[in-house]
Records
---
Amino acid sequence: MAVQARELTKDYKYGFSDIDVSVFRTAKGLSPEVVASISQHKNEPEWMLKFRLKALDHFRKRPMPNWGADLSGLDFENIYYYVKPVEEMSRSWDDVPDSIKNTFDRLGIPEAERKFLAGVSAQYDSEVVYHSIREDLEKQGVLFSDCDTGLREHEDLFRKYFGTVIPPNDNKFAALNSAVWSGGSFVYVPPGVKVDIPLQAYFRINSDNMGQFERTLIIADEGSSVHYIEGCTAPNYSSDSLHSAVVELVAHKGAKIRYTTIQNWSDNVYNLVTKRAIANEDATVEWIDGNLGSKVTMKYPSVYLMGERAHAEVMSAAFAGDGQHQDAGSKAIHVAPNTTSNIVSRSISKGSGRTSYRGHIKVLPKAHNVKVSVRCDALLLDEESRSDTYPYMDIENPDVTIGHEASVSKVGEDQIFYLTSRGITEQDATALIVNGFFEPFVKELPMEYAVELNRLLALSMEGAIG
Amino acid sequence: MTTPLAAEPTAALGPEVAAARAASSPTWLAARRRIAWDAYEALPMPSSHSDEDWRRTDISGLHPERFAPLENVDSTVLDAMRAQRDSAAPDAALIFDGPSSTIIDGADTLLAQGIIVTSLEEAATLHPELVQRALTAVRVDESKFAALWNALWRGGAFVYVPRGVQALAPVWIAHAASGSDVAVFPSTAVLLDEGASLTVIDTYASPAGTAPMFSDAMVLLSAGRDARLDYCTVQQWGGGVWHVAVQRAVLDANARLRFTGITLGSRLQKVWWEVLLDGIGSEADILGICFGDSTQHIDHQSLQAHRGAETRSNLLLKVAVRDQARSVYGGMIDVAPSAVHADGYVANRNLLLSQGAKADSIPRLEIRANDVKCGHGATAGHIDSDQRFYLMARGVPPEEASSLIVRGFMDDVLDRVPHRGFAELAGTLLDAEIAGASVAGVAASGA
């Protein structure tokens, strides 16, 4: 009755790749010249070039992290840091090249657009090529563009927030992103505006050996609310790719931001992402974070609770198949009194996969009456799978209530037996249990994503039963 | 041996002391000590900047070379520790781990059973194969402090219980220190052969006060197949002591360990409580209580290493911190692929009693086998104002209400301590700590 490992299907469903249509790319590797040429190509203001060069300097000085996942396979000199696929931004669908459209078709973007009728910002390589904003969003004064456009058209607003949540010297990969960033989304929601349809952007890696360094900046002004969805599918390539994004969220007084990600990079991508939010007085920030793909993911969405009564919610799910390491978790830094945070993590390891929960709860001396709950559960499917939990808690105020619980277990033989005795095949039974295990995460997703996630899980589970 | 530098104390921890220690040891031990000293000199001091394990515990103020090996212990410390034994376990054999000589007292019952109760130093000469067996659990160069201990320990306590022997009385070990700018290397080695059973009470104390001292301790416990070991330890060093210790148990098939640790004293401690569940079906219950106040920095690291199949471990550490005290707890349940059906749990509960007190908790899991049941829990909280209100409404003064609640928080651990006399001693010491009447350290005679 043992659940046995069998090799994941080699027939990776999203493993297609298109002919490279890039029109401009920098030389491989990293140098001040490469950084300057990116900045020059984008006609950026002087301060941004300086920002990039300073970040590059910091990236070079900073040692590789000596904790977390194995990053020894990364070769920074064998990566294109900037690739621009087409000359001009396309304003309408008709202008988008057919080959790119084909890719989007296979990803289901037009459907997503029809369904959500919100702004679709599809990133093809490093540049946003297709971008539409629903008219009523524009009327409400919501800014939703790629980050380069945000810098060009709203420089003052952009500059006020850019790099304030995650400074370039925060960590090695934030420094890298700060030096070579391109693309990503820029969202500004004016005071009191509730964006009731999720904004979404698809990110794609296409060029071989090309890193994707998008930069996302979301500002929700006082009393506003917004839900942003980031989904990723990457084509398969033989050599390792690097994805190193920076996502900054600022929730002003009483604002609410929900940020949903389903990460499904192909299994040769290093996904090293810095995501951080600032929650001011009475604000709520929610990270809904799913990690299925990639070779290595290191990602710890965090919330700095800066204002009284701010609330953080992090719901994450990770699936590590053969050869994958998902080192994910979350951080809540309670700076202000009466702040609360709730963290739920579910992870599954299959075959030689490894999931690690790495979390950090910090309560600073002035933050009284803080309430924190952390719950992480892990499921191990095979004898060689591995699960780790590294929850760090630093408590510097006596007036707190903090609870942390974790469990690690395997799919119960009695559960399988119960289901199979009712005529369900063993494979379906395991899939059912796995789906049930992810249920708290899945129910937070919009329906289309919930369906996609279930499809991806089913795919990953194929052949899980010997 | 004289030192070339006149200004230095004649016997500060250095190569001369190490050479002298090697010269007075049997050949096999002398060789081990020399390798250990070389390793000590080669290894860098752990740094809170570059060593992840030491990130939260800063020992940049500790300079081992400024301490001289302890030569004499104040008799009042001895008397106070003996008094603790007399009230908590009058039947226990006493091993007094003095700096230059080890005193054994009241061990007749155990000796008659064929149990060896002696100093580690003497055992190294008389029973080298047993001591070598005990020492296999620690590599001479596994850390800076382990290397130093290996090079410089002397005296120490050694207990060996032969196959099938159930000890009729506990062994009470007293590691003492007194004075200023002195270093001690408390050593305890306990070997239980197949089917043996024993209770050990391992105590560490020095006078109250802030005189600087350095303790580098090693406890090596080994329980053979089907053996039963109850190990209780209390650390009540004075407020100027730097305490670094490894307390490690290796369990063979179906062995059972009940470990109780009470941490009250020291200026700064970093202690590893490690259980290696090597044998199939071995089990360990680890209970800990810690009370920190003033500016104490108390660091506990635990390891539950599941190597054998069907192994079970459970750890509960309760910590209360007051004033500016800081607790650091790092736990690890490490399950090897071979540990099928392992069952491990770790829980850390923290009570913060004042603004300014800190508690860090990092209960980690690394699971490399799939058919296991493992979990952990960590909580941090403060005194429940409802509970306090309830007590005050019944006429209990506020301070007393707080004391009662803190004591209640600890009591469920004390209730599970296997040796009642020790549990009562721990309760008394805890009450004194909570009342704030005594700072860390044993009271001087007559006080």
Note: Chain A has two domains: 24-408, 411-466.
---
Amino acid sequence: MHEFRVSVGPASFRLLSDWQKPIAQMRALYASYPEPEIPDFTVRLEAVSLLRRFLRPSGAIEGDYMLPDAAPLPVEQGLLALEMGMNLQMALGWRRHLILHASAVERDGRVLVMTGLSGSGKSTLSAMLGLDGWRFMGDEFVLIDLVSGAAVPYPRLISLKNLAIAEMQRVAPSAQFGPVMAGTPKGDIRHMVPSPEAVTRMAEPGIPALLLFPSFGYSAAVRELQLSETFVRLTQASPNYVALGEPGFTALARFVKTVPARAIDYETGAEAIAMVEQLWDTLA
Amino acid sequence: MNDRNPLYRAESPDLLIVEPLDDMTLIYHRRSGITHMVTAPVPEILEAMGQELVDIATITARLSHQFEMEADASDVIAIVDSRLADMMALGLVERASEGTA
């Protein structure tokens, strides 16, 4: 099997694949990330059958933690399969932090956390802010320290989807991009390597200072949220809240009571960034 | 045990973390690991029950003291009775059995 090891924030992975190509792609995209000696998790991309290794190759994602009904992906999407496998290990197996399914950027030691459903634009917004004076901390998971409440970076590759691909190529032409994977379960996907600063500073946490729930595709609007609504939404956005028990409750209750939250609707990236900056100035 | 005037006991405060948010209050139940989100008068009933075995009349008397309402008003008694049933279902309150009464 082909193998690659990589650390992303505090988590480390060993990636194994029956095929060389996805491993070579990961190696190129994660070239600036440290290599762990003892990985936390193993992700395997294995041929569904020996025949399928060569004939219309198709790989199943396996690892320390697995979902039994995860569908195999064509090997052209092997990179995506490995990324999904890494996300799955974190969601199902990570216990050292409260995980929020959210993106995050940092400025002056303070962190803006953005959470929402797939398509809300949280990933694209974090990538755009990362080009505009903020430090990119992650577009998929934010890790909340169970003791201090700090937000710990998890700056994996930025996963751009559909319209966001062309938009980011336009505003960040010198960034490093992975291959375009068309027709995945989430449409077209292309990964973008975070800025060098995001990687070199990935062990530096920050204090959560503002929480936003962005929604893309609606006329610009800002809405206040009740603490209880924020709490419920964040329990839904945390894959390990229940598993953590009391430390998870304590960390989430503190987060909700100390971090101001707003829902924002927006129609363009520029509009969203202006709203973010204004809310940051008044609330954070 | 008297079926007509049952006695109740609240879960030990050591096993509950109560976090008021807004109209809603979070109660983390250490025994079950479940987070409950409740509204008034659930936190107030828990507080009024203290750690003793109490009947509904005692609970409503203590609540009325706190909130200036008629302790023997039938709607207050009905509300407390209904919330106690909910809290029993959540495991936050138990009804005393013959052995403990």
Note: Chain A touches chain B through 14 residues (CB under 8 Å).
---
Amino acid sequence: MGAYRIVFAGPIGAGKTTAIQALSDIPPISTEVASAEAEAVGKATTTVAFDLGQVVLENGDLVQLYGAPGQARFDFMWPMISENAIGAVILADNRRPDTVELTLQYVREFAPRIAAGNCVVGVGRSKLRHKPGVDEYQDVLEAAGFAIPVMEVDVRRKEDTLLLLDVLLARLEAAHSGA
Amino acid sequence: MALDPRDSRVGMQQELAALCKKVPTAKLAAVASEDGLLTATHEQAEPNPSDRKSAMLASLIALARTAAREHGLEEARWLVLGCRLGVMVVRPFGRQRRRLLLLVVSDSEKLGPTLAAAKEFALRIDAKFGLPVGEPAQA
């Protein structure tokens, strides 16, 4: 049995807290407070330190799920949260007009902090706004040198978010086996 | 009528300056929103809302609250951080709009009066600026 850390990152409102709530086997620790920018960001609350949940995998391994605060003013938390992490889920909000560029920024921030740069991008709210598609994210990331899987996700659905974790763990196994 | 945000900042800056006068060892007094946006300091200069130190304050108090709840202590009313060169006092306050008061003092000997002054400040600010934006003041 092992214990691993996976980080959820992305802009404010991308669904990091919701994803961890959906996934966690225990009531997650949350540091959400009322947002003073609620009107501007379209969200009443925001995470100011981190979210922390955990999930036990079928093989008994414990995965700690850390949610990073989205705003740049909290970037001092990002290295602390990412320390010893084996993977990062970067969540995107497809309703944002700058979502692809923003996703690339978060990948640039987090990939170097994560073991072997093991990241996956989950594109949320793609049912509300179909464009950009997954391919567009993939192209921009690849052009920037990041070979990272990109998938559509509804973070409210546990099976969707579990799939992101499975992809991260499979990539990790593949890297260890030299595949 | 609700206060204009700028009037509110200037008024708060004046209150913070008065707090610094009341606590002779005070080095800094500041108010931030609960999510770490700097509202005002004791200095007249326009503050940078995205100041990282205010964001750290918000993280610190959120973690302190979480720890307090985990220990069954309920709401965290104070956070006092004793350091080699001074003391940081953080007080969450505000009935309707939650804010954080930061008071940095150089002398840990007179913490009692410092806490009392901070509490008095919080009550006064809440009475003066506590209404949500757009909500008329009651006579």
Note: The interface with chain A takes residues 33-37, 50-52, 54-56, 58-60, 62-63, 65-66, 97-98 of chain B (CB under 8 Å).
